[in-house]
UniProtKB/TrEMBL annotation:
PANTHER family for the chain: DEFORMED EPIDERMAL AUTOREGULATORY FACTOR 1 HOMOLOG SUPPRESSIN, MYND-TYPE DOMAIN-CONTAINING PROTEIN
Protein name, entry field: MYND-type domain-containing protein
Keywords assigned: Metal-binding, Zinc, Zinc-finger
Keyword Metal-binding: yes
GO cellular component, one term: nucleus
GO molecular function: DNA-binding transcription factor activity, RNA polymerase II-specific; zinc ion binding
Stored Pfam families: zf-MYND
Presence of keyword Zinc-finger: yes
Chain ranges of the MYND-type domain: 5-43
Length: 247
């Protein structure tokens, strides 16, 4: 995804995001240092606005792309209710959080491990439906992970959504982290999808396990660990976005 450096105005597809507001783009650490005197005046405000809030000022995630964004997503991941209080449209009918979690998972497996399973598009399959079916079977085997209303019929509907005419939830197309951020307008959402997939499969990536991060983020949502600075650094580490924020 092409962007423009906020300092030198250079256009590039390899820009890095400010780790605090996660919206402003820079091509280098030097450019961010040059722009910091100006950017620091609006950085915190951009952080708040980019995440979206409800009428009470509570941060919602993600701010777009779903029928009903939720509060405290990492707390919900930690207590196994991430999918439970969402409308069915978001889980499997029109949006498909499970589909996106799986699609991002196989993208990561290919990029981080060089894994190209024959049951998905990275291994040459026409679609990733066979692999997604296995993913849903694994999810059903994780006690309490899926909502109480989940059954064979909802699984079939979820599979059909992934093979429908949608230009987004398409199991025949790849999904990258940058696509998730752009579509949902929330840098945290890719991390949530990755942690959900790790909970489904029971396997993280070397040096990047989601359990510790999930608990850390849940603690911060509850007001612990000093708030935003640690939050920004944690988002940075898990999503692979280089931190160039200088305070």
């Amino acid at each position: 995804m092409q962007g423009t450096c906020n300092s030198c105005k250079k256009a590039s597809s390899e820009l890095k995001r400010c780790a605090k507001c996660t919206t402003t783009l820079y091509c280098s650490r030097d450019c961010q240092k040059t722009d910091w005197k100006t950017h620091k005046k609006i950085c915190g405000k951009q952080t708040h606005e980019s995440l979206g809030t409800d009428s009470a000022g509570t941060v919602l995630s993600p701010p777009k792309g779903l029928e009903k964004p939720i509060t405290k997503p990492f707390t919900r991941l930690d207590n196994n209710t991430y999918l439970h209080e969402r409308p069915e449209e978001d889980v499997y009918r029109d949006i498909g959080v499970l589909i996106d979690s799986y699609r991002l998972r196989i993208e990561d497996e290919y990029n981080l491990e060089g894994k190209a399973a024959v049951d998905n598009i990275y291994g040459g399959a026409e679609s990733s439906l066979p692999g997604f079916r296995k993913f849903l079977q694994l999810a059903a085997g994780q006690a309490g992970l899926l909502p109480p209303w989940w059954n064979d019929q909802t699984q079939k509907a979820c599979e059909e959504l992934g093979m429908g005419s949608s230009q987004w939830q398409d199991l025949r197309r790849a999904l990258e982290k940058s696509d998730v951020i752009e579509h949902y307008g929330d840098p945290r959402f890719a991390m949530q999808l990755r942690i959900l997939a790790e909970m489904v499969t029971g396997r993280g990536f070397p040096g990047n396990g989601g359990t510790q991060v999930r608990k850390m983020m849940a603690m911060m949502e509850g007001g612990g660990m000093g708030g935003r600075p640690m939050y920004a650094a944690t988002v940075d580490a898990v999503t692979g976005t280089s931190s160039i924020l200088q305070s």
